[in-house]
Amino acid sequence: MTGSLRYDPIAVTLHWLIALLIIGMLALGFLMEDFPGSIRPLAYTLHKSTGITILALSLFRLVWRLLNPPPALPAAMPRHLKLAAKATHWLFYVLILAMPLSGWLMVSASQKYPTVFFWIGEVPFIPMPTGIDGKATAHMFGDYHLWFAYSTLLLLALHLGAALKHHFVDRDTVLTRMLPRWVQR
Ligand code: HEM
Ligand code: HEM
């Protein structure tokens, strides 16, 4: 059976778009609390709107991935590394959904400020069970949000290290097959 040798253009575009957005959002998330009061609301609106966009893109990406299997990993790769690569990738899919979802759940439990999607319109709050303590629940989802952010950073370090090792040590095509064709040329 001859599978494809590279990721398809949609998978490549979604990979790099979501990677850039997530890296920007991690930086903005950690910094925005310390922004001066005059630009803080703008930063939060951008953070929440971009986060909702990432959630939609990630859902689409997951469906795309399930319908379009990726190219096989190099045959020379040991079994345990293949398993590690697969586990990392699936954990990333969980995190790119859990990260924005926990943020949305946090603001929905708190209901302190509305979420306005890029000044277009209000994003509804996710309904919460009646009788819950909104503040404590928001705090709990805030904790999840923070731990998901740390987990994403950790996974990103592993993922980046692996990509560079494939390219410069193993000298295989694992990195280049995820690059857009115009970069490869
Ligand atoms: C991939 C998407 C997202 C990433 C990577 C991300 C990342 C972060 C990070 C690193 C922080 C600072 C750490 C923390 O206080 O927890 C943060 C804070 C925050 N995020 Fe997100 N976030 C995302 C999506 C969202 C979404 C969709 C919402 C809401 C709709 C949201 C709402 C917030 C709020 C309100 C805070 C401030 C929490 C506080 O001050 O206690 N985030 N985010
Ligand atoms: C937060 C940012 C990132 C996320 C969420 C992410 C996520 C993912 C996921 C889920 C896959 C698996 C694709 C699939 O098989 O469906 C993947 C593959 C890949 N990623 Fe990332 N990635 C990120 C950043 C990066 C960076 C910075 C590099 C830099 C070199 C990179 C290089 C690659 C490569 C080369 C592959 C293909 C691996 C293979 O062929 O099996 N990624 N990434």
Your description of this structure?
- With 185 residues, the protein is mainly α.
- It has a single domain (9-184), classed as Transmembrane di-heme cytochromes, Chain C (Fumarate Reductase Cytochrome B subunit, Up-down Bundle).
- The chain is 68% helix and 3% strand.
- The chain contains five helices and two strands.
- It has helices spanning 9-32, 40-67, 79-110, 134-170, 181-184; strands spanning 115-117, 121-123.
- A two-stranded antiparallel sheet has the order 1-2.
- β1 and β2 (121-123) form a beta hairpin.
- α1 (9-32) runs antiparallel to α2, α2 packs across α3 (79-110) and α3 runs antiparallel to α4.
- The longest helix has 37 residues, at 134-170.
- It is elongated, with a radius of gyration of 19 Å.
- The protein binds protoporphyrin IX containing FE (2 copies).
- One protoporphyrin IX containing FE is lined by residues 22, 25-26, 29-30, 33, 47-48, 51-52, 54, 99-100, 103-104, 106-107, 115, 142, 145-146, 149.
- Residues 15, 18-19, 22-23, 65, 70, 73, 85, 89, 92-93, 96, 152, 156, 159-160, 163, 174-175, 177-178 line the site of one protoporphyrin IX containing FE.
Give the topology, please.
Elements: H1 9-32, H2 40-67, H3 79-110, E1 115-117, E2 121-123, H4 134-170, H5 181-184
Antiparallel strand pairs: 1-2
Helix pairs in contact: 1-2, 2-3, 3-4
The structure holds protoporphyrin IX containing FE (HEM) (2 copies).
